[in-house]
Amino acid sequence: MKTPKVGFVSLGCPKALVDSERILTQLKTEGYQVASDYDGADLVVVNTCGFIESAVQESLDAIGEAMSENGRVIVTGCLGKDEDKIRQMHPNVLKVTGAAAYQDVMEAVHEYVPAPPKHNPFIDLVPEQGVRLTPKHYAYLKISEGCNHRCTFCIIPSMRGDLVSRPVGKVLDEAAALKRAGVKEILVISQDTSAYGVDTKYKLDFWNGQPVKTKFYDMCEALGQLGIWVRLHYVYPYPHVDAAIDLMAQGKILPYLDIPFQHASPRILKLMKRPAHSENTLERLKLWREKCPELVIRSTFVVGFPGETEEDFQILLEWLKEAQLDRVGCFTYSPVEGATANDLPDHVPEEIKQERYERFMEVQQAISAAKLQKRIGQKMTVLVDSLEEEFPVAVARSYADAPEIDGNVFVEDIDKSVIKAGDLLEVEITDADEYDLFAKLIQIKSA
Ligand code: SF4
Question: Is 151 annotated as a binding residue?
């Protein structure tokens, strides 16, 4: 009997990517092969995103393509919550399951393409760290599912449910396996990393024979013992995060925090129902920088939220100038079907949203450029992501840059026969533009 093959299309954010990795790992563990094209696949799984309208459209298009190229399609992921919408456009998909519904996806695969009868898990080896869709040297580590907040612009809790934290022993086992597999950088992800363990009442677990609490700080401390880069995403500026800054100052985890502030006007934050909206975030940032001067903060913002006045926007601009964040993304508000913010009064006209976006980016670009200029002459450790094809240049990142979303450090005039992706280099920064740095090699730190 020939080995059944499953095609896979993965869309969406890093959290969805981790779901895809988990399903692919399970498929391989059970002896399925992953098909590299639609033609060779017995069926296709499409892991969708439903976060904003453009993502919904992209997901529906991907399902349509898989249907016309293959015809046997299982849909999973965030958009799976809206089965009616999927079936209206694609009535003949085999099955629709929701986000992180690994078991449901596997059951559907079993139903339509039975598992190979003679699969032997001791012969068909799956790597200990599972199947990964990221380059070998970095990996996302998902610590929880769902979210207890109810931000008015977001439908994730309705798609993924309330917070469910993974036991800390499992999280740390996975992190250790990643390290053994050669991963140099772990990116901790969730919907709210600072809330880790709240749902379990910080349950005590064990790792390497030691008791560890399922709690934000305890997890960070244990991850810091691995001796590889640990980067925290989706953290909120709560007082209990202060202790993790000490770990950063001690060099245990990267002095980098991804905090989606989204706005700074207290009125808008309240309308958004943002976590920690009543915290004095500028004070907190000051405190953190005193503890750990090299701390880099990245964030995202939304301009043109319903009810945002010019005064609210000015508060945001002033806050931005004061906060001096290192890396910033900005979006104009776009309504998401099912989000309660849609019912708020005073929606902002598109041209005003656009105009505010441009003013926002102008302010932030100047901050970012000035911050990067200050790096010139500094020595930094960078992790190589790739080598440029045509030039003797390594595309790398320092502790200040997360993959995909931040800038790069371009290390010039290197010998491509001795440097490869995954190497850690010591470099000296020679130049900077608004988003990227340029550097010369001092030495290879670890290959
Ligand atoms: S914190 Fe808010 S924006 Fe983030 S997932 Fe939870 S509800 Fe959505």
Answer: yes
Pocket test for ligand 1, best of 52, 142, 148, 149 (most atoms within 8 A of CB): 149
* Percent of the chain whose pLDDT exceeds 70: 96
pTM: 0.84
Nearest atom of ligand 1 to the alpha carbon of 155: 8
Q: Which atom of ligand 1 is nearest to the CA of 275?
A: 1
Residues of the chain within CATH 3.40.50.12160 domain(s) are: 5-112
Reported as a single tens digit per residue, the pLDDT across 341-385 is 999 999 999 999 999 999 999 999 999 999 999 999 999 999 999
How far, in Å, from the CA of 150 to the mean position of ligand 1?
Answer: 6
The residue whose C-alpha atom lies closest to atom 1 belonging to ligand 1 is: 149
Superfamily name with CATH number, domain 5-112 = Methylthiotransferase, N-terminal domain (3.40.50.12160)
| 154 labelled binding-site residue | yes
pLDDT, residue 214, reads 96
E strands in 195-341: 204-207, 210-213, 229-232, 256-258, 296-303, 327-332
For the chain, percent of residues with pLDDT exceeding 90: 72
- Residues 290, 304: Cα–Cα separation, whole Å: 33
3 state SS of 107: helix
Residue 125 has pLDDT above 60, yes or no: no
In this structure, which topology does domain 379-446 adopt according to CATH? Answer: OB fold (Dihydrolipoamide Acetyltransferase, E2P) (2.40.50)
**Interacting residues of 445 by C-beta distance below 8 A, sequence separation 6+:** 381, 423, 424, 425, 426
In which element (H, E) is residue 385 found?
strand 379-387
Q: Where in the sequence of the chain do the CATH 2.40.50.140 domains occur?
A: 379-446
Q: Is the pLDDT of residue 97 over 80?
A: yes
Please state which CATH number belongs to domain 138-373.
3.80.30.20
Cβ(9) – ligand 1 distance below 6 Å = no
**383 Cβ below 6 A of ligand 1:** no
In degrees rounded to 5, what are phi and psi of residue 268? -70, -40
Where do the CATH 3.80.30.20 domains begin and end in the chain?
A: 138-373
